[in-house]
Amino acid sequence: MAINPKDIFKYVDSMMFVDKNYNIIYTTRFNPHFGSRFGFNENEYTAYNNKRYFELYPNLDHDESAMVQVLQYGKTVIREGQTFSDMTGKVYTTNNITFPIIRFGKVIGAIELSQDITSVGDLECPNKTLPRTYSSQPNKTTSDDISFDSIITKSTGMLEQIRKAKIYAFEDNPTLIYGETGTGKELFVKAMVNSNKTRKGKYIAQNCAAIPETLFDSILFGSVKGAFTGAENRVGLFEMADGGILFLDELNSMPVHLQPKLLRVLQDGKVRPVGSVSEKSVNVKVIAAMNKNPMQLIKDNLLREDLFYRLSSNVIYLTPLRERTEDISLYINYFLNHFNSKCHNHVFKLSPNLRKVLQKYHWPGNVRELRHVIESMVNVSEEATLTTKNLPAYLMELINMGENSIDSMVGLETPAHFGTPLKETLEKVEREHIINALSLSNGNVSRAAEMLCMPRQTLKFRIDKLGIENYK
Predict the structure, then answer these.
(1) Phi/psi at 52 (nearest 5 deg)?
(2) Alpha carbon distances (Å) from 385 to 292, 329, 336, 344, 390
(3) For 438-456, what is each residue's pLDDT tens digit?
(4) Can you list the domains of the chain with their CATH numbers?
(5) pTM
(6) N or C: which end of the chain has fewer CB within 10 A?
(7) 245 — phi, psi (to 5°)?
């Protein structure tokens, strides 16, 4: 049954136009309650115009973003029940439909329509749902599809972590997952959530690195109107996740002086909204993730010992890809098939030379970096066989690629060729690249990240990791 295009606005609360470079061209809202519930007025909402999409939503996973998938592949994507926060810390739960704007066969932008389903206050149309007529091209892989069988590995260490995660998924105790960026922490979380049918109905994820320090209290625990300047009655994430699961990503970004409040909730199961004199009981399973070793964080005074001990009953450690090289070929083959099917290309194999280079490279970005390298090569290849010439430029420079010698391309077998250890050389090259990008962008991290073709959060992590200072 066809639906009049005009009727779509009966189901939509807000609309956003984004160009191919993720610049927000125009955004507006149709339902006045959508803005008033979150404490911003029309002027504040239209102020989103001319910002960049990931500047507005800094905690969105770039790899999983519907906007990225639409702009890259030109397909309509529908997401239901997404919970996320914007740059001010405001938290939303929405149903979205994002579809491409195509001109002369090329994607030049995208339109995203959102329906607010946040359970705060009364909705203007509480029972409305997006008409299924518009879901002609749903995203094939959703979070609901992810299970422990989705985790690709033959490493005995990783298989042991999967075994433990299957047990922890059904326990009420909090779970801590730690490992370097790109090792698959969020994949483990989604598998745990989907296996727990009791708590699966309420699942909220929040990247702690995206929360301004002044808003941590109100976002996690809620607030009452008048508690501070601009404060509104807000339900915190713990209350929103009551009876379900709350995933706190990059927990090591939480300020140390606020960690005792989180510890108290984990111990007593009670939250006190900012400005309130009463406490509320909550039943929430917390899964926390860190991208650094917790013992090192304690040593550096970035993590309280008592909070770690509360989380330490259920701990999962994900090893970096360089320590489980037996998995590299598995990922190469998986991502090659995956991107072949998505991009409709006909890359059938990797040259033996290229496979050896990929096998020996140390993958500082872990599985995420390997995924992007394979995607990049498949996208630009015009041949059935990928060779070292298809490698991204940054990777060719990092491994000091030669034309014929595998050892000179990878450098792992011949450190004397460089005169310094490979890790030190790579870090020096990476540091120079980042400093140059920051200089060209006048210290703007978002623009520098775009120049380096990486998510802003990844670049910020590398800046801190490499000790780059005074770039603003």
Answers:
(1) -90, 145
(2) 38, 16, 11, 15, 10
(3) 877 778 888 787 777 777 7
(4) 5-140 (3.30.450.20), 145-319 (3.40.50.300), 322-414 (1.10.8.60), 422-465 (1.10.10)
(5) 0.59
(6) N
(7) -125, 135
